[in-house]
Specification:
The protein has 400 residues and is an alpha+beta fold. The protein is built from 10 helices and 19 strands. It has 3 domains: 255 residues, FAD/NAD(P)-binding domain (3-Layer(bba) Sandwich); 76 residues, Alpha-Beta Plaits; 48 residues, no CATH class. Helix content is 34%, strand content 21%. InterPro entries: FAD-bd, FAD/NAD-bd_sf, RIFMO-like.
């Protein structure tokens, strides 16, 4: 399909929709192309970080997200007090997690995109790219067609485990929350009937797990005499860990899972992709090639750190005796306030600082609580000093 847009975004997941909103705020004609005809109902992320909420709230989306979160939180009373986790160690602090399924977030962002005049076409599959036309951004997931068509390398490590997530009807009892066992990891909740299993015996043999496959895995990992009587939705995942060598090749850019894939440990993937979109949108709208190049410069190291820490979490949760002792040691280390603060900030992304050329310690950091709903930057007074804030909420300069 040919479009007359200045930018075509491929993928109508939360990253693609948020990027489209960011571009539309800047007056860029934007079209979103989505292969699926309807929203996917597979199990995905069910929370966003406090930092992500702050960034979306600066665009005026706070009330809509809060309303959607409250509707979902009412079903998760026992989970409200949960902190963020690292390798299943629920000891992180300062997370301010917001309960919000990826599907609910997509609905909020799609409504916002349509209000801003974004055109969304569903049931459209991209099969080729025109490298001499307007910008194209691949937000089309880990198997990104856009990335492959652009010839962007995707190096990394292959899968070593099989993970399942499903919503089922269950006959039998499971311990709530995360549970490590001699054969792997399983979790129950926070939604009624939601289960997760991880077995460290190689990559998945199928992408469409049957009831029998899920039940056998659950019984092996939990050691419980449980039966799955019905499967409402199920997905399989692994720890395939890869990152695009560059996020830009000519007029083609990548964001979200198209740029980086990793295991879901720590719940960082959705937040990482949304922050990509907020970093890229205002830069791409300028058409300034040098500024657009800073998208890779700034965001590539951030994702690289997420890839490293998710690989570490996989290592910590393996069921072998050595990993179990390492897990125990790491649990003790997280009792130390300095360690806990550092890991918490890393997982939530609150310690990100972009290079600005300004020596002030706050330069390059995020400023929460600002109204940037117009998608423009602003100037503020910070500690008695004048500071320039970019459209994505990060300080670009402080006058000392």
């Amino acid at each position: 399909m040919k479009t007359s847009s200045d930018v075509t975004v491929v993928g109508a997941g939360p990253v693609g929709l948020l990027l489209a909103c960011e571009l539309a705020l800047q007056g860029v004609r934007t079209t979103v192309l989505e292969r699926l005809t309807t929203q996917a109902d597979t199990i995905k992320a069910h929370m966003i970080s406090g930092r992500t909420f702050d960034m979306l709230a600066m665009r005026g989306l706070g009330p809509a997200i809060t309303a959607a979160s409250e509707a979902e939180t009412s079903r998760l009373a026992w989970y409200r007090a949960s902190t963020g986790h690292f390798a299943g160690l629920f000891k992180l602090d300062g997370q301010d997690l917001v309960v919000l399924s990826q599907q609910a977030l997509e609905r909020v962002l799609e409504a916002h995109a349509l209000e801003l005049g974004v055109t969304i076409h569903r049931g459209v599959e991209v099969t080729s790219l025109d490298f001499d036309s307007d910008y194209v951004v691949g937000c089309d997931g880990g198997r990104s067609t856009v990335r492959k068509l652009a010839g962007i390398d995707f190096p990394g490590t292959g899968p070593s485990l099989t993970g399942y997530q499903a919503i089922v009807d269950l006959d039998g009892e499971l311990d709530r929350g995360w549970n490590r066992t001699p054969t792997g990891v399983y979790a129950s909740g926070p939604l009624q009937g939601r289960i997760m299993m991880i077995e460290y015996d190689g990559p998945p043999e199928t992408r469409e797990p049957t009831r029998e496959v899920l039940e056998a895995s659950l019984r092996r990992v939990s050691g419980r005499d449980v039966r799955i009587t019905a499967v409402h939705t199920a997905t399989v995942w692994t720890d395939n860990t890869r990152q695009a060598a560059t996020y830009r090749r000519g007029n083609v850019l990548l964001a979200g899972d198209a740029a980086h894939v990793h295991s879901p440990f720590g719940g960082q993937g959705l937040n990482l992709g949304l922050h990509d979109a907020l970093n890229l949108g205002w830069k791409l709208a300028t058409g300034d090639s040098e500024l657009i190049d800073t998208y890779t410069t700034e965001r590539h190291p951030v994702a690289e750190r997420v890839l490293r820490n998710t690989m570490a979490q996989v290592a910590l949760t393996r069921p072998d005796p050595q990993a179990r002792e390492l897990y125990s040691l790491f649990s003790d280390l997280l009792e130390l306030p300095e360690v806990r603060r550092r890991i918490s900030a890393m997982v939530q992304g609150t310690d990100i600082r972009y290079e600005t050329g300004c020596d002030h310690p706050l330069a390059g950091t995020f400023v929460p609580g600002l109204d940037l709903s117009a998608g423009l930057g602003t100037s503020i007074v910070l500690d008695g000093l004048e500071a320039d804030v970019r459209p994505d909420g990060y300080i670009s300069r402080i006058t000392t």
